[in-house]
Amino acid sequence: MPRMTEEEAWALEEEVTRNPPRVDPAKARRPVRMVTVDDFSADWLRIKAEAEHTTTEVIINKLVREKIAASA
Fold first, then answer.
1. pLDDT band at residue 16 under the 50/70/90 scheme
2. For 27-54, what is each residue's pLDDT tens digit?
3. I need a labelling partner for 20 at 20 to 30 A (CA). Which of 12, 32, 35, 44 fits?
4. Which residues are CB-contacts of 35 (< 8 A; sequence separation ≥ 6)?
5. CB 64 within 8 A of CB 45
6. Cα–Cα distance between 50 and 38 in angstroms, integer?
């Protein structure tokens, strides 16, 4: 996907400001699940996510799916 020019970004910002998206409050929130890990694990997840240009959630999802597939 090509990057926007600064002019295009400002035009989009103006459009969204004038016409904010409609959000259904009933569907606006999803449950928050928090997992606590030790510092070593948190650092490993962060470094792995940065190396793969993704998020820690994606790394955790991959690990869980691999573990499930291995046990099947």
1. confident
2. 767 666 777 888 999 999 999 999 999 9
3. 32
4. 60
5. no
6. 18
